[in-house]
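Let us practice reading a record.
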Amino acid sequence: MAHAVTLPEVPEVIRVLAADSTRMNSQLLASALERDKRFQVLDSVPDSRGFVATVLKEQPTIVVISAEIDSDPRKGFELSREVHALRPETRIVMLLDSSERSQVVEAFRAGARGVFSRSESLRSLAKCIYCVSQGQVWANSKELRYLLEALGEALPLRVIDARGAELLSRREQEVVRCVAEGLSNREIAQRLGLTEHTVKNYLFRIFDKLGVSKRVEVVLYAYSLGGAHELAASPVLGKGKTVSPALATQAARSRMSPAMAPGE
């Protein structure tokens, strides 16, 4: 039986800046989003050159940006990286023409907190914006699987702070790799020659050091921070597409149970 779920009231409106592939598309997208009373939609930017300056001046909660801007299929990724570097508190939703692996992976590497395919509805986009504004990451099961696969390809994993010092010990990094592979505490213990209780303690310490609270947050934290060899610290919280941080994507369960707490 289906159950209706009422979203909590939003105490403040969500400031949204939209930048689609052309100026006309940006205006159309902004007009559509304005119908949702939760959003305060800022004036669209005339061109990509003034986009970052507008973000810094207007300080939107959410930026919705197309991967292709001004006929450049990669411009949106470049702008996303700039915004993420200069104002990381602004959360980014990347509009994609299709959920191709390369685009999904690059969007999250560029700092996006959500990816949204144009094949979906405006109503779903509004839900995506709301969820990302609440600290969740918006991605469907296929897109999340792309991230997990890319994380595995990006090993060896190193999580460092702004000074270049490693945040996790070698053993803690080994535990994070096992979590990324979707292993349970029992399987991690067997692989590393530890007890389940010791694994649980390692996870509590990892969560504390990274400032996260769920297994999926550990993976997205590590992956979202960049290059193939060094990943620096800036947490990614929650997970996405109709799934809160407390729930796992069913299609990814065979690889990972991201909602499990350290003791599970």
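A brief commentary: The beta strands are 14-19, 39-41, 62-66, 91-96, 114-117, 159-160, 231-232.
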